[in-house]
Structure formats: structure tokens, C-alpha cells
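Input (structure):
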């Protein structure tokens, strides 16, 4: 059976779709069979996936774009075909998001260093707790160091859910590679952005399966 990770965060624009796309490619590049499920009516991940058709030698990834009552069934079906399922959810905590959280082995919660993100993260972590699913906060667009980085890390740590050791900086390469339908791991000269995503992908797998 596949590992299922659901990217959830009530706050819009926190980096859910960015994280889902780049993690999917990072894991696929390492040789895992990966499927992505887009349950957001905005269908951003689906649009990125459509761009992939033009990428030469794109690493194969499965996509399912579903909503409503079909979410759980599609996630279950896909999980029989691949090793890792990544679900990208919309910026609210309504039925589909709840179902996606319920299906997850781990809920990934991207959060930026802002008070609004912090407050929304609490709501998302409560949802994961209500569904009895483990969660991992992923600090996104973090300054490398300084007062804000320290302040935010300690505030997020107070929420009582693990915070990933790997943080993502604010890096244009994450957006520009997606514009071409790529993940940062298949972008030549990806630099710091590529290193961060590779490290994060490894950290998440380790948390999913500590024996690895
Ligand atoms: N680490 C990052 N560095 C630079 N840009 C980023 C980073 N993470 C996200 N972004 C940018 O922030 C914007 C929002 O990201 P994204 O669409 O992934 O968020 P989202 O949580 O999926 O939004 P929504 O709630 O609308 O679904 C996008 O323009 C994306 O390119
Ligand atoms: Mg999104």
C-alpha cells in the first residue's frame, strides 16, 4: 500500500500546490512511483500537470483531479498503483479537505512566517487532530536567519506538532520551474531551491518510515 501525504493549510497562498508539485517530482526522481491528486476547484496542480506534457523526458507521475464524494475512492484506487500519493487540497477546511486529511498517513502543513499563517495553521492542525492524523508543519519562504526566523520557529513549535527541520526559503526557482511544468528536481542548476526540496523530501520519507 502506498504512503499518502495530504498537503493542507486553511490559509490561501501558503505554498500547498508548490509543495505538492515539487515533492512529487523529487520523490519520482528518486525512483518512487508517485501519484498526485488535485482536489482544489482552482485546479492549479492540474494546470501545472498539463504543462508537463511539453517537458522533454518528464519523469512519469499519475494525476487524478477529483472533488466531492469521489475523493476518498480515487485516493484509495491510486494508492494501489503507486508508492506515494500526494494530495493537494483547497484553502479551507470543508468536506473534501477533511476527507483528504482523513486518508493521510501524514498531513503536511506549509506555513509562512506571518501571524496570519500562524493562526490559520492552528485551525489546520486542529482538523488533523480531530481526524487523528499526524501532521508536520513545513516552514515556507523563511528568511535564512534573523529575528523573524527565530520568533516564528518558536511560535510554530509551541503549537505542539512537529516542525520539519528542513525549511524552504523564498526562491523564484520554485515558481519558474513550475511555470514550465517541472519540479525543481528536474530543473538543471536548481541550486539552493533544489537542495532544500531534496532534503525535505528525504526528511518526510524518514518521518513516514523511521526504519528507512
Ligand atoms: N518557497 C517559495 N518561494 C517563492 N515563491 C513561493 C514559495 N512558495 C510559494 N510561492 C509562491 O506563492 C504563491 C502561492 O503558492 P501556492 O499556489 O503554492 O499556494 P497555495 O497554498 O497552493 O495557494 P491556494 O491556497 O490558493 O491553493 C505562488 O505564486 C507561488 O509561486
Ligand atoms: Mg493551491
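Output (sequence):
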Amino acid at each position: 500500500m502506498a504512503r499518502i501525504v495530504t498537503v493542507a493549510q486553511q490559509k490561501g497562498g501558503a505554498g500547498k500546490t508548490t509543495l505538492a508539485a515539487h515533492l512529487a517530482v523529487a520523490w519520482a526522481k528518486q525512483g518512487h512511483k508517485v501519484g498526485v491528486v488535485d482536489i482544489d476547484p482552482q485546479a492549479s496542480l492540474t494546470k501545472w500537470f498539463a504543462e508537463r506534457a511539453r517537458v522533454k523526458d518528464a519523469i512519469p507521475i499519475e494525476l487524478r483531479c477529483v472533488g466531492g464524494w469521489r475523493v476518498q475512492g480515487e485516493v484509495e484506487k491510486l494508492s494501489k498503483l503507486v508508492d506515494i500519493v500526494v494530495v493537494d487540497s483547497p484553502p479551507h477546511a470543508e468536506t473534501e479537505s477533511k476527507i483528504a486529511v482523513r486518508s493521510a498517513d501524514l498531513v503536511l502543513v506549509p506555513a509562512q512566517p506571518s501571524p496570519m499563517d500562524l493562526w490559520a495553521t492552528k485551525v489546520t492542525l486542529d482538523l488533523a487532530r480531530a481526524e487523528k492524523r499526524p501532521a508536520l508543519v513545513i516552514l515556507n519562504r523563511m528568511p535564512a536567519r534573523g529575528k523573524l526566523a527565530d520568533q516564528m520557529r518558536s511560535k510554530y513549535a509551541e503549537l505542539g506538532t512537529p516542525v520539519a527541520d528542513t525549511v524552504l526559503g523564498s526562491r523564484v526557482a520554485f515558481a519558474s520551474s513550475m511555470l514550465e511544468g517541472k519540479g525543481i528536481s528536474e530543473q538543471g542548476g536548481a541550486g539552493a531551491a533544489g537542495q532544500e526540496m531534496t532534503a525535505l523530501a528525504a526528511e518526510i520519507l524518514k518521518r513516514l518510515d523511521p526504519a528507512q
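Notes: DSSP finds eight helices and six strands in the chain. The chain has one domain: 3-208.
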